[in-house]
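Morning!

This is the sequence you dropped in the shared folder:
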Amino acid sequence: MTARRTSNAAKKIRGTDKPSREREEHRVEACVPEPPPELKGRRARRIYRDTGEKLAAAGLLTDLDGEALAEFAQLTDEIIRAEAEVRKHGAYWTSEKTGYTQTTAAASHLLKLRRERRSVMDRLGLSPKSRESIEPAPAPKPEGTANRWAINGPELLK
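The structure's back. Tokens below.
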């Protein structure tokens, strides 16, 4: 047996016409700035959107951070491509002339991109060090509960 749906008019009369948190139209969207047109590639735009939503949900994103977020997304996309190149060709090569092992250009480029991305991450608040000064909101205590381990001043005098 299926439950009958209550009409909207009946819900209004009862005062239960509140929006469902499960429905798509009632979800609150995080305000992520539009990606700049110079952001290249579908993957970079997806990284921009996903990271932006997470930062906005945490309250760490403003409209002014769009450019840094775009730079982070583009660098992450380039790092993914450089990692694929390094996996394909290797990170080192041996010189036939001298016999020394050297880093390939792709591996050097990958290290440079990672350093740049780390810098952008610090600016955006994506690293633990950059969030160090942000104080999380204290969790609310349920009403009627007392901390039984707390010692008040007058109790110390007894």
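Headline: Residues 21 and 27 are 7 Å apart (CA to CA).

More detail when I'm at my desk.
O.
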